[in-house]
Amino acid sequence: MKNTVSDDQLQKRLRADDKKALEEIYVAYKSEFINYSKRYKIETSDVLDIYQDAIIAMHQNFVMSQTELKTSTIKTYLFGIGKNKLFKKLNQSQRLLRIEVDTDNYTEIDIEADMPTENQLKLAKRLNEISDTCKQLLQLFYYRNLTIDEIVQLTHYKDGNTVRSHKSRCLKHLKSLFKVT
User: Fold this and answer.
1) CA–CA gap between residue 18 and residue 24 (Å, rounded)
2) What is d(CA 80, CA 32) in angstroms, rounded to the nearest whole number?
3) What whole-number distance in Å separates Cα of residue 91 and Cα of residue 181?
């Protein structure tokens, strides 16, 4: 699939951070993306959020990484990002457990069972000993389960390699704190 002249021009404009080009793409493919997403059982409001996230991710890839599509069109690239975000949303919604509760029968909850373990307490203490940026990075990656690319989008890091490197240093430092005690 070869890019058309207008697609190549749009790519150049996107790399130059042309907001009008971004708006053109947003408007041109919005209804198609919504129609495409109807095959999945996702609320329209969530689909719109996903579409906007996909547009932002695509824009950042063009502006920051100077992405150049040679074998696909902008639409294909945008829909690929959107499709991955749709699948991620579906996976998150499938993880939720739906439990019906019979109001007549209830069980007591043992509060002690929900108390943090000794290792969890040690980890919490050690997390307070590392820098705020390390703590934030590790929480984004391990607690919120964000991908490296999502962390790049949410933070000041310039690219995924920087995030990986910083995460590695932070983990190494955290592990060294455990060895001291």
Assistant:
1) 10
2) 13
3) 40
Decide: 10 and 74 in contact? Cβ < 8 Å. yes
Identity of residue 5: V
Tell me the HSE value of 136 on the side-chain side, using a 13 A CA sphere: 10
Amino acid at 169: R
**How far, in Å, are 64, 123, 144 from residue 151 at the CA level?**
14, 22, 10
pLDDT in tens, 160-178: 999 999 999 999 998 888 8
What's the token pair of residue 141?
Answer: 């990656």
Claim: this prediction has a pTM higher than 0.90: no
Q: 22-59: per-residue pLDDT in tens?
A: 888 888 888 888 888 888 777 888 888 888 888 888 88
* CA–CA gap between residue 84 and residue 86 (Å, rounded): 5
Round to whole Å and give the CA distance between 34 and 51. Answer: 8
- Among residues 3, 46, 2, which one has the least CA distance to residue 54? 46
The two three-digit tokens of residue 140, written as one number: 């984004």
* Beta carbons within 10 angstroms of residue 18's beta carbon: 16
Q: How many CA atoms lie within 13 A of 67 on its CB side?
A: 19
